Each structure stands twice: as C-alpha cells, then as structure tokens.
From TrEMBL:
Its cofactor is Mg(2+). GO terms for molecular function: hydro-lyase activity; magnesium ion binding. SMART domains: MR_MLE. The lineage of its organism: Bacteria, Pseudomonadati, Pseudomonadota, Alphaproteobacteria, Hyphomicrobiales. It holds the Pfam family MR_MLE_N. Residues 153-251 form the Mandelate racemase/muconate lactonizing enzyme C-terminal domain. One of its GO terms (biological process) is amino acid catabolic process. It comes from Bradyrhizobium rifense. Gene3D superfamilies: Enolase-like C-terminal domain, Enolase-like, N-terminal domain. InterPro entries: Enolase-like_C_sf, Enolase-like_N, Enolase_C-like, Mandel_Rmase/mucon_lact_enz_CS, Mandelate_racemase_C, Mandelate_racemase_N_dom, RHMD-like. PROSITE patterns: MR_MLE_2. Keywords: Magnesium, Metal-binding. This is Mandelate racemase. PANTHER family: ENOLASE SUPERFAMILY, MANDELATE RACEMASE, MITOCHONDRIAL ENOLASE SUPERFAMILY MEMBER 1.
Amino acid sequence: MTNSVSTAGQRIRSVTTRGVMVPLKFTLGTSAAVVRAVPLLLVDLLNEDGVTGKAYTFCYRPSGATAISSHLYEAVELLKGKNATPFEASQTLARQFALLGVTGAVRMALSLLDMAMWDAAAQMHRAPLSALLGSGPKSLRAYDSRGLGLMEPDSLAKEVRALLESGLGAVKVRLGYPTLFEDLAALRAVRKSVSGADIAIMVDYNQALTPAEAVLRGRELEKEGIYWLEEPIAHDDYVASAALARELKVPVQIGENLNGPDALLRAVTTGASDYVMVDVARIGGVTGWLYAAGIAAAQGIEMSSHLMPEVSTHLLCATPTAHWLEYVDWADAIVEEPLIIRDGMVLTPESAGSGISWDEAKLKRLAAI
C-alpha cells in the first residue's frame, strides 16, 4: 500500500484555518435535524518547501470549527521542526493525544492535518493525489446525497426530478417518519417520480430506529427494491446491527461515524454491516483511509465514501473494493473548480494534489464562523 508513495517528509512552517457557513441548495431534513446551511472548516498548511496543502471538512456545528482549529494548531506545534511523512505524523500525533482521546474534534483535526500534508505531497510530485496513492484519476459511480429529506411526498417527487438533472443515476432518501406508513409513502413518491428510469435508491435513517423497529420497517422496505438501508439504529451498536444484517435481505450500510480504522475493524469482524461507508475526516485522513481500505479489502466488503467528495474521489481510486462516491455540492461555494459530472459519473480531478483551490471571491460572500 505504501510502495508507490514517496518516503520524503515535510517540515511544517505554519497553518491557518477559517470557518464559513455554506447555504444548501436543497434543505436537508433528517430524523435528527433540519439543515439549511453547513459549517465548513478550511485549512491551509504551509511547509518549508513553500507548498501549501489544502483541506476542508464539514464540522457539524459552528462550534466544531473552533474546537477542531484549536487541536489542529496544537498538533502543528508538536510537529514543528520535525521532518515527517503523513504516516509518521499520524503515528506521532496519535501518541501525543492518546490521553485526551483521539476522537471527535481531535480526530477531525488530525485528519485535516493529514489530508493537507497528502495534498502538499502530491503537489510536490506534480501529480494528482490518486496517482501518488498508486492508482490514477478515474470516473466514479456516485449517488446524489443532496436534499430528499423528511418532507411531504409531493415535495419529494418534485425534488428528486430536480436532482436527477445533475446526471447521476442514484439518489439517497432520508426516512425516519413517525410511522412506517409515512416512510413507505415517501419512498414510493420518489420511486413513482423516477418511474421508467434506471435509478438506484438508497435509504438513510440517521440512527432513528430501535433494533426491533428496524427489523419491522426493514422487512417492508426491502420489498420496495431499495439499494441499501443506512444507519437504521445506533451506529456503534455492532451486535444489534449484525443481528439486523442477518435478519434482512436488503444490505445494511454503516460507517460514516466510525472513529479510526480500529473501529472499522471491530464493525466488520462483528458482521455489523454488509457494506461500509467511510468519512475521511473521522477515519484518520488519507492515512487512516488507506488502513481502512486494506481492512475492507481483506474482509471483501465494498467501501463507499461519506461527504468531502473532492478528496474522496482520489481515495476511492486507490480503494480495492471501491463502491459508491457520496456526492454533495457543498464545496462548490468555496473552490475554484467544482467536481465535474459526465455521463452519470463523477470525474476525479487530474490537477496536482487533491485539486482543491479556494475561490476567494466566493468565500467573501459567505458568513464567517
């Protein structure tokens, strides 16, 4: 996994962060919250070679930007004066933050630092990140994860038609209404609206159900031909999730909340999921993703991405069991070159690094956090 990656390290000179609120084009209503704007944290990491690595993450709440930034600045200070590869930096910082706990905001800070270091490394090699990881830019199968939240069936039918104008051949519907009847009505409204088209429909419950209710609703939903059933119950109840996966015919999907590769290993060896979905900011950045991809490959489990599609395109290119890219357009509001969709696929950027470059004119129009 590391043979194709240069062992040359980097010396970090400085880091800057800034948080912005990005309004969503499609409101996202889930069983947990209604989201109309998302807080994003942007990172610029300058090394002694004069190369600036860039990365960003969704930080869930505006206060998350402050917490993540604090840990990130501390992490950079710990690396000052050291010549380190991303792998070495990851190991060093994991030890330094062990007593505090490498989870939550700490994990996300270290992941962002890792992503920025990998971006800089690829820029220094004048190669796309995917190539530095031993693969190369590819066209990736993706599903549209914007919108389709909890709303009236007629509104869902209208919104899915608007989403399909992007050209992707799959969408994700959020469920978790008070009753199974309402869940089915919502799903059927979407299905009817795309009748005649070869569209895959994923379902996400955002951990809304009890294990017993998940069995009840899952048995009915699998009759509707959904592609997967995502996070129906508490994400870290691996035993109950494994029982659910055995009970249902429809594949169970979890993973976006897995904290590091070790959590992924526990989940898959428990049989908690038929598929896995990894969030680059929670799994440990690019370095953590590579470990996770190895685990998924060894277990023969297909692996999808969660959010941050710009960097995730590169990572899926280097993932042996790559499955689906989760597509959102949130970063269109902050980058110079948004991802391109062509022939129903998302194209991996071919420019050096991760392909992320900030559009300062766009950023000036966003509220700072």
